Structure formats: C-alpha cells, structure tokens
C-alpha cells in the first residue's frame, strides 16, 4: 500500500476518533466560555444522551438492574435511529434548561472548585443511577440499518460505514452551531455578554435568557454526541466519565469558548491518537526490548495538551480575556 | 445480607445467649449435637487452637464463617463479574441449606461447613489490580474472611493471590487465564480451576489450522496486561509450531473502546488471519468493530478466549469465529445439566455462563476440602486440595495439580453462531471438547517450569 493511502487512512481514522470529542467539547467549551461554569456533569449529559438514544431507537433486553428485577425484561420504544437523533437533543436541551436554572445559576459567583465539586457529584449520581436502573453490564446499541457494515473507499479500502456517518453528522452540527453563534443576533448577544456583560445589560438586554439557552444548547450537543457515539461501542454507565476527560483536553488545546478551537482540538487529539496507533513507530526496538507505541496513544494526547499549554496557555484559539 | 434467617437454629440460640467465645461455643456445640453432623465443627472444625495454632484468620471467632467474593462489578469485565456474583450467592445458599451440587458432593452436608453457617462479603475490583488488592485486604483485615475468591482480569487475580500468600488466607481463583497466574507468581495459597492461555493455544491450534489451512500469516492485537501478554505469546508459540507465521503483534490498552485505528493497521498488514486477544467488553467491542470494518472479508478472525456475556454483547459479530470457553451449558453431562437447571431456577431462567460455573465450583471445592480436612486450618485445607482428583463439576475427570495448583482439565473449543440462531443463553456451536490428555504440560515445563510454591505456613 502506498504512503499516500496510508496517510489517508490515518487521517480518516483520526477524523472519526476526533468527531465525538468535537461534539462533546463544543458544548463544554461554550458553557465554560460564556457562563464561566466548569461543568463536570457534561459527561453525564453524554451518558443520558446515549441511554436515551438507545431506548428510543431500540428495544433492549435487560438482564440486570432494578428495572429487570421489577419485571421489565425488555424496555425501549424501538422507533429507529433517526427518531433518537431528533428526540434526544430536545430531551437533553430541556435537562440543560433545568440544570442551568436550578443548579448552575446558584454557582456562577462561587469559586471554580465549588462548581467542580457539585457537578462532579452530580455526574457520579447520574452514573450510579443508571447502574442501579439498568445494571452495570454493557448493552449493545445496534447501528442503524443503513449504516451497517463496511464501505469500499478508493485507496483506503474497507471503512466502517457508520464512522463515515459520524463524521458527516458532526460536520453538519458544527456548522449549525457556528452559524448560530457567528451570524445571528442571539449569537451576537452571547458573544458580547462573554466580553462585557455589564455593557450588554446597560444596553437593556437581559442576559439571563440567552445564557440559559446557551447552556441548554451545550447540553443538547452532549446528548447528540451520546446518540452518535454510543453505536461505536457498547453502552454502560461508565462511558460518560470516559468521554469527559478527553473532551476537557480538547477544550484546553483548542481554547475555552471557541468553536473553531473545539473542532481543531478534537481533530488534533484524534490525529495524535491515530498516528501513534498506526505509525510505523509501532514496536520500535529499544535497548532491552521493543516498545509498543500503540499502548502509548493515550499518553500522546496528554503530551500534546501539555505542549500546547506551554507554548500557548490560552489554547490555540482561546483569547486571554475569555479564559 | 446473605445470611439465612429462615429458622431459629442452634446458632441463633448461641448468638442470643451471647456465647461468642470459642471455648464456650465448643462446649455448647458438644452438648447440642443432634446427629445431623452439624456439631462436628464447633470445636475442631473452626479450630479452637487445641489442634492447630492461629494462622491468618484461623481460628474463626463466632459461629459464622465468612467468605469474600471480590469481582468486577464495574470496568470492562463487569458483566462477567456480575454473573460470578450470582453463582457465589447461590453457592453460599446451597452450602447453608442444601441443594445444587451440594447434594451430590459427598463431602458436603448442606448445613454450612464444619458446622459453621457461611456468610459472605462482596467487593468490586473495578477490573483494576490495585483496587482488587485493596478490596481483598479489607476482606481479610476487617471482615476476617476465611477464604476469598474472585477474578476476571488475571491482573486482579495475581494481585489477590499475592495478598493471600502473605496473609495466609486461601484465595480460590475464579476467572483468570494468564499463564502467569500459576506459571510465574506461583502461590501456595491459591488454586486455579480455569485453564490458561498456554492450554488454549494447544486446544485451538489444531482446530483452527485444520479449518483454515496450515500456512497462514497472522497478526495479533492483545490487551496490554498480564493476560493479554501471555495470551499472545502462547498463540504465537502454538500457531508457529503448527506452520503459521506472525506478521506483527500489537498491544492495546485495557478498557479501550475504539479499536478502529488498530484494526486499520491489521487490515493493511497483509496478514491472512487476525487474533483478537481481548476479553469481556473489550473483546465484544474489538470483534464487533472488526466485522463493521469488513476485516472478515479478507482475513480469518480468531477470538481465542470467549464467554457468554461477551458473545451476547458482540451479537451477530461472533458468527463463525473460533475460540475457547471455560464451560458452556451445552456440555452434556450430569453436573453441567443440573447446574444449568438450578441456576436457571434461581435466576428467572437465566442460562449460566462459564465464569459463573467457575465461581460456583471453586467455592464448593474449597468447602469440600475444609470438610475433608475437618478444619479450616489453611495448611490442612491446602493439602486436601492438592492432587485432588474429581469429576463432579461438569468438565470430566480433573486433577488439581500439587506442583502448581493448576487444574488439569478438558477445554471446550467453540464457534460463534449466526445472530439468527442465537437463542437465550445459546451463542456457540460446540466444536470440540479437547481432552486434558491433549493439552497441558509437565511440572518442569511450560508455564510450570518456573514454579516454586510459597510456604504452607506450618513449616
């Protein structure tokens, strides 16, 4: 296989690995940038999105958990994937509204550490609640019928159809959010509020409503990420926490509050991962044996974040005022 | 929570009277022998110090012997852990009240063990060695368990058996398949019913090379910890001996959820076969993603170690994929059939998995050995287990070998069924049950070569 095809393959793998991080990080970054709220429960919103998507799209047979003990052997609406893709963001949007109004708002003026503690606590409660209800076991989220199996790509060869769909869905959602923030009055108010909230309020614009909507949009994005990402793996109560850490790294790399930053950060993280896994570096012999670099792919992501923070503490697209 | 409180019995009376002292217990037990054998252990069974000195958590104080069940209820092997826990609870129930295999084990009475009611504590290893060791340590130090058991992830089992040896409390391995469990860290205070990666290689190579040809090139992905490392070493050894050649072998982190990049590399390697040395949720994910990526169109895929929960999670992806399993409900003999029956009766028709069979069997094997020894004194129980011959757990004639505490037993080789043929609890076609005569190794070769077991504790 040619070097070009190899590079193309690594690029596509990096893009698909980064796509989910982009979706999660975009919401996280928006909330952190506009509201200065450190939301460690963002992974829990991903988790809610994944389970909600699973239960809307499929009919699931439970072998564990409280629901099964109470006689609910099968749960789920079996409405198909598209229904999940539409309903879940609406559902998680409402959760976002409630979360902003009854939780986040009370913590805006309190130190970051308070915000972290309360949202982290919430995330653990959500995770354990799912474990109690559905059991700890992993549930298979069947991919939609139209996106099953591989597709033959020129030069690259077989590539999972669903992963291409994930890249496409992410691209569309990123574009929609970008247009909303950059080219609408709503986006203008939010951006202005981020820079100078007092001036915006002096102009007679109440920021409470745009903020609550922005929070809910961020939450809905995490929910969508759950629906789109869950068919890539099996759904279990831990996936929210597992998604949160790389998403924060993406925000750090890209810069807080920047949609472009979330996209570039997500792609970079995905690429570093794909390159370390797939590079010819794998199993380079060193003194006393061979190091398998693929197992270091996680370390590479942290090294990238550390390097960028050293060179540019506010992240690639972050501005010092915002961060 | 596991204590059976159905009826007022001798032990309840003892508790109520506050006779917790061992000497008092011994005296009362002697007075209240009722001919059912329950009274034999109060004094000697628990060990009042007359026959044996204190060692580890021996002698037991009170009239309840506590077992510790340390399994992953979170992490990538949690499905296996939860099924193990079901089996452990069932074993305790049967030990206290009769039923299940207890009625067929000549050494067990169904009235506790050595006259002691069995209680248990449980812990979550989170599929992590350090967490497992901490949890086991709590069981030994705080809960005074006389035996603990667990597994799923050899790293956790190896960590626990090291603790067992140092604390002089017996550990009955459950699901652990690394060669290192009995081949490197050989521990006197630990026994393993499960076969190992070396034996999987011996059982799998003839079947797979017979099916796909004897000169294929292969690529391996493996979970980067004790089990995966020895697993891929054994695959390399036995498939290369059979004529295959390895292109590359690449490590993946435990708990990885996205294997796409790894699989792309495997697909581009030019190899004709791919071994996925992953287990539990990791195995379900990697196999599913390999099929999604169309790797099966150009390569033969092999999943060396399977079990039922992971097959269930992988769904239709297992179709036609060869592997080995600890035990399966399709194995047709009296102990296997009865286990499937009473496990299903207890758990709403659920078909037990291989890990569940291991958990149940290892608990009863310990209890039976204690009964044979007539005491919980660990060195005596160990001597009863060593070189013990048995055929009562559904895997044919077995020996728990003295030199490395590794059971010598048959190995089921299976092939995944298509999704349309998968029924409840039925995921595999049983291709072969490889006789123990065709697998295994002498005490001075293979993984046993390095073995020097630790002390009994009464030297």
TrEMBL record, chain A:
Q: What is its main location?
A: membrane
Classify the source by domain of life.
Archaea
Task: Please verify whether the record's keywords include Transmembrane.
Answer: yes
In alphabetical order, the GO MF annotations are: transmembrane transporter activity
Q: Name one GO cellular component term.
A: plasma membrane
Keywords recorded for this protein, A-Z = Amino-acid transport, Cell membrane, Membrane, Transmembrane, Transmembrane helix, Transport
Compartment(s) where it occurs, according to its Swiss-Prot or TrEMBL record = Cell membrane
- What is the membrane topology here? Multi-pass membrane protein
Q: Which GO terms describe its biological process?
A: amino acid transport
Provide the transmembrane region boundaries: 12-32, 44-61, 81-104, 116-134, 162-181, 211-232, 263-287
Give the family, as the similarity comment puts it: Belongs to the binding-protein-dependent transport system permease family. LivHM subfamily.
The protein's name is Branched-chain amino acid ABC transporter permease
According to its UniProt entry, this protein's organism is: Halorarum halophilum
Automatic annotation (TrEMBL), chain B:
Hydrolase as UniProt keyword: no
Q: Which residues form the Leucine-binding protein domain?
A: 66-415
Q: Do you know which Pfam families this protein is assigned to?
A: Peripla_BP_6
Task: Specify whether Manganese is a keyword of the entry.
Answer: no
> PANTHER family recorded for this chain?
LEUCINE-SPECIFIC-BINDING PROTEIN (PTHR30483), PERIPLASMIC BINDING PROTEIN OF ABC TRANSPORTER FOR NATURAL AMINO ACIDS (PTHR30483:SF6)
Organism expressing this protein natively: Halorarum halophilum
Q: Which Gene3D superfamilies match?
A: 3.40.50.2300
Listed name of the protein: Substrate-binding protein
- The superkingdom of the source organism is Archaea
Q: Which InterPro entries match?
A: BCAA_transport (IPR051010), Leu-bd (IPR028081), Peripla_BP_I (IPR028082), TAT_signal (IPR006311), TAT_signal_bac_arc (IPR019546)
**Keyword terms of this UniProt record:** Signal
């Amino acid at each position: 296989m040619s070097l070009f095809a190899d590079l193309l393959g690594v690029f596509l793998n990096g893009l698909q690995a980064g796509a989910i991080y982009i979706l999660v990080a975009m919401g996280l970054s928006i909330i952190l940038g506009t509201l200065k709220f450190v939301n460690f429960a963002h992974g829990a919103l991903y988790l809610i999105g994944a389970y909600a998507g699973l239960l809307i799209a499929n009919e699931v047979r439970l072998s564990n958990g409280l629901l099964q003990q109470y006689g609910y052997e099968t749960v789920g609406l079996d409405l198909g994937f598209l229904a999940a893709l539409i309903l879940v963001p609406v559902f998680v949007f409402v959760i976002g509204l409630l979360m902003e109004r009854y939780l986040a708002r009370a913590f805006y003026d309190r130190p970051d550490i308070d915000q972290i503690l309360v949202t982290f606590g919430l995330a653990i409660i959500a995770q354990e609640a799912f474990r109690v209800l559905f059991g700890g076991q992993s549930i298979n989220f069947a991919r939609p019928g139209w996106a099953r199996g591989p597709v033959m790509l020129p030069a690259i060869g077989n590539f999972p159809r669903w992963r291409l769909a994930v890249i496409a869905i992410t691209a569309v959602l990123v574009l929609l959010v970008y247009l909303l923030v950059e080219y609408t009055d709503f986006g203008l108010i939010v951006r202005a509020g981020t820079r100078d909230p007092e001036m915006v309020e002096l102009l007679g614009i109440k920021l409470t409503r745009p903020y609550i909507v922005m929070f809910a949009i961020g939450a809905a994005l995490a929910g969508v990420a759950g629906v789109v990402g869950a068919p890539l793996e099996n759904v279990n109560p831990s996936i929210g926490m597992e998604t949160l850490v790389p998403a924060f790294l993406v925000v750090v790399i890209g810069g807080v509050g920047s949609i472009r930053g979330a996209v570039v950060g997500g792609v970079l993280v995905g690429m570093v991962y794909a390159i370390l896994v797939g590079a010819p570096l794998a199993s380079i012999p060193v003194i006393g044996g061979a190091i398998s670099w693929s197992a270091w792919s996680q370390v590479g992501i942290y090294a990238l974040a550390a390097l960028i923070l050293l060179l540019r503490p506010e992240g690639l697209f972050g501005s010092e005022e915002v961060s | 929570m596991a204590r059976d409180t159905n009826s007022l019995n001798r032990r309840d009376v003892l508790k109520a009277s506050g006779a917790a002292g061992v000497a008092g217990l011994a005296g009362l037990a002697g007075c209240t022998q009722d001919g059912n054998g329950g009274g034999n252990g109060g004094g000697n069974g628990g060990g009042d110090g007359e026959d044996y000195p204190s060692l580890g958590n021996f002698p037991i104080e009170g009239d309840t012997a506590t077992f510790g069940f340390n399994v992953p209820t979170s992490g990538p092997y949690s499905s296996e852990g939860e099924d193990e826990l079901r089996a452990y609870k069932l074993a305790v129930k049967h030990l206290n009240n009769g039923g299940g295999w207890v009625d067929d084990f000549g050494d067990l009475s169904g009235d506790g063990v050595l006259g002691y009611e069995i209680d248990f504590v449980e812990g979550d290893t989170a599929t992590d060695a350090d967490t497992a060791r901490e949890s086991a340590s709590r069981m030994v130090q705080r809960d005074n368990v006389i035996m603990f058991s667990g597994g799923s992830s050899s790293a956790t089992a190896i960590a626990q058996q090291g603790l067992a040896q140092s604390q002089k409390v017996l550990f009955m391995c459950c699901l652990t398949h690394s060669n290192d469990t009995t081949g490197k860290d050989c521990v006197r205070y630990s026994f393993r019913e499960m076969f190992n990666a070396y034996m999987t290689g011996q059982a799998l190579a003839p079947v797979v090379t017979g099916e796909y040809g004897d000169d294929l090139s292969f690529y391996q992905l493996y979970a980067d910890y004790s089990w995966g490392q020895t697993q891929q070493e054994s695959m390399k050894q036995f498939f290369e001996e059979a004529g295959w050649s390895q292109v590359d072998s690449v490590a993946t982190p435990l708990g990885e959820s996205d294997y796409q990049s790894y699989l792309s590399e495997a697909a581009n390697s030019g190899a004709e076969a791919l071994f996925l040395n992953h287990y539990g949720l990791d195995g379900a994910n990697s196999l599913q993603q390999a099929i999604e990526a169309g790797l099966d169109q150009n390569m033969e895929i092999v999943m060396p170690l399977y079990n039922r929960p992971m097959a269930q999670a992988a769904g239709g992806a297992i179709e036609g994929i060869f592997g080995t399993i600890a035990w399966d409900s399709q194995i047709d003999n009296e102990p296997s059939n009865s286990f499937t029956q009473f496990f299903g009766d207890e758990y709403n028709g659920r078909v037990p998995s291989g890990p569940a069979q291991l958990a149940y069997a290892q608990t009863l094997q310990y209890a039976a050995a204690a009964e044979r020894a007539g005491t919980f004194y660990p060195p005596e129980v160990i001597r009863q287990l060593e070189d013990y011959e048995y055929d009562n757990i559904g895997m044919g004639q077995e020996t728990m070998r003295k030199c490395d505490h590794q059971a010598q037993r048959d190995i089921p080789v299976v092939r995944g069924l298509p999704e349309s043929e998968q029924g409840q609890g039925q995921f595999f076609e049983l291709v072969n049950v490889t006789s123990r005569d065709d697998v295994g190794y002498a005490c001075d070769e293979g993984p046993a070569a390095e073995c020097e077991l630790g002390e009994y504790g009464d030297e």
